[in-house]
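Morning. Coffee machine broken again, so started the prediction first thing and wrote up yesterday's gels while waiting. Chain of 189 residues, entered below exactly as on the submission form.
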Amino acid sequence: MTSFARTPEKIVHTLRWLPLVTAIAAVTTAAPFAWDKHFGTFLLLIFIYLPAVALVSIGLCIWAGVERKSPRARSIVISLVVMLTLACGTFWALPLAKDEVRFLAWSLSHDDAMREFADRDSVMLDWESWGMAGMENDAYLVSNPSDNLTQDGGASKWLRHVGSSCEIVASKRMRRGIYIVTTYDCPLR
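Came back before lunch.
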């Protein structure tokens, strides 16, 4: 009996790695744009990042169309969906969690500063600022030992104690007695 070695049929490359690479690229490129609120970052987002994402999406759609009868088409379509989902998800989720992540990192290395300001109403740190041409927002990390900054009348009482006539447009409690407050066009310092 004679045996013949089988020659492999056409080997099909399925591009299983493409969705993972696309996911990593989407999160890594979207995160800096979602983190920063400066006007220059906004301009880079509008004029460079979003057109690049649109071109990559169009390229993946064309590639999926060309490969529509191949097993590779599935990986290409999954990559497109993953890229768009993760980029949009990063722009949605990162700004919501940014202050908490920054505060956690800051508080781990600045325990002495938190103890120093723990017993008085004060501005601890300039947290963040954004805007342009007279429309600036300034955020500050502040201490409020009575822990009532977000309650009715608490903000105006706190502002009197620190000697400011600014209006607080937003406040977020980080932990007991520590808040991030935002003013519009009126610096606290």
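DSSP finds five helices and four strands in the chain. Going to sketch it on the whiteboard this afternoon.
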